[in-house]
Amino acid sequence: MMPQRSLMLTLLSAGLVFGAWQIAGMIPVSYAFPTFLETMSALLRMVLDGTLFVAFGETLKPLLVGIAISAALGIGLGLWIGLSSWFDWLFSPIFIVMQAAPLAALIPLLVMVYGIGLTSKVFVVCIMAMPVIVLNTSGAVRNTPTPLKEMGRSFLGSERDIVLKIILPAASPIIFSGLRLGVSAGFIGAVLAELKITPTGVGDIISYSRSIADYPSMYAAIFSIIVLAVLFLNLLERLEDFLFEGNNRGYASDT
Amino acid sequence: MRTPASEIAVTARRISKNYGAVEALRNLSLDFPRGQLTSLLGPSGCGKTTLLKIIAGLLEPTSGEVEVNGKAVTGPGPDRAFVFQDFALLPWANVLRNVAFGLELRGIARSEREAIAEGYIRNVGLAGFEASYPHELSGGMRQRVGLARALSVDAQVLLMDEPFSAVDEQTRRKFQEDLLSLVQREAKTFIFVTHSIEEAVYVSDQIAILLPRPSRVSEIIRPGGFRNKGADQIRRDPEYLDIVDEIWASLRRYVE
Questions:
Q1: Which of A187, A207, B70, B180 gives the lowest tally of CB atoms within 10 Å of its CB?
Q2: Selected residue of B79, B105, B110, B162 to mutate for chain A interface (largest A Cβ count, 10 A)
């Protein structure tokens, strides 16, 4: 019953959005705004002739490397910062600055230092994705409920056990929400890098299609990257459910 | 009335605890007889939980020392297990893992610790809920999980910090009755913090009344006559009623 209902709701909301898109494109709100169906046919064309897969092959490289680095390093550093006030003092400001920095303005600097290759792009993804992962993790670790830590100590848990079996799992819901935000930001970073550094992959399709006024293709490329991001976030949610089943307590309105 | 030294499981000797300028405990000494239940009773802010956590080894006293079976306490140890006021269950772990968690932290193999835990889950009346998660249980059932966890590590001393204060009145009465039979069945020493006079008199072999700011033991009461009368007779026993009144008379002026 429930899964069917939520599937119906998903389809309904998708239908509403795409319908509105189609109507807005038909009015049209702008010459540069294609209808939903035009966009989908452009997408289909790019899928069939393989351009899209080649493009994703390029885009996914900095994206996956950057997200992997951000997740591993971000959770590690966040844990450290949350556990030690000294590390908090040392590292937290870096990530706060990183999160607030106008990234597009910094890209020329990155290019000067690391060139126009993969490294710079990975950096852009990391700068986008890592701060929120670090800050969420450290905040959650610092706010581990005291009774849980006392429980671990009173039942003779070692420092390591208390971190791995109590503090990290207790922080996991917020770490995962940080990961979700970080991954979405990483997707933005990957496309931004391809638009601002060198046009490759999906960023290349976007900027090339725009330059020749092929707006359906441009929107199809944007649409495909959003779809990929949504799939990725879903995967992350599955992973959380699998690792910490008891975290899933349904909705506040369920009783 | 004095109990011989070998019959004392836990001794607190001249315990003082300061939080900055605030004196929580001053020069407090108290003996806890083996195999009996001792309540620490007092108005809120009298330091009874602080004393319990010092005995548990979770807090260090500013001065003084605690001995368990003649050995000085320097930190948490295998001879003591703690039952928490707010249960302190792992929300991401099911009942079975929560109950076995104390043994897990001690490095007991999974099959062995789960077998032990299953036994205690049955004992506390939670059979069938092994795979449930804490958020699916009522407050009373959660505290049964906390109790089963403390029992499974088989410590000689059970430290209970207002264990029934977060459950409803009817569940609390049932818990108090169950606690009486638990004290009789298990050869363990129970140290029980409560702010309820009735609860203390109902379950205790010995009641230490703590007075606040700074805390010291003002009086030790050992209810005797009604202990063997059966759980449902205690509350109508004249001695029970007298002791409740007497304690209230001495505590009321400390309650604002």
A1: B70
A2: B105
Residues B141-163: pLDDT tens digits? 999 999 999 999 989 999 999 98
Question: Which H/E stretch holds residue B253?
Answer: none
Please list the residues that pair with B39 across neighbouring strands: B192, B207
| Contact predicate B155/B68, CB 8 Å | no
- Its ipTM equals 0.87
* DSSP bridge pairs for B11: B31, B67
Q: Which of B76, B86, B106 lies nearest to residue A154, judging by beta carbons?
A: B76
B245's CB contacts (< 8 A; 6+ apart) are none
Query: Is the alpha carbon torsion for B22, B27, B32, B38 positive or negative?
Result: negative
Query: Across the interface, do B80 and A153 touch by the CB < 8 Å criterion?
Result: no
Q: Is B157 exposed, middle or buried (0-12, 13-18, 19+ CB in 10 A)?
A: buried
Q: Which residue has the tokens 């499974």?
A: B152
Q: Pick the closest to residue B15 from B69, B62, B48, B53 (CA basis).
A: B62
DSSP tag of B160 = E
- Total residue count of chain B as it appears in this document: 256
pTM of the predicted protein model: 0.82
Interchain contact, A156 vs B106, CB within 8 Å: yes
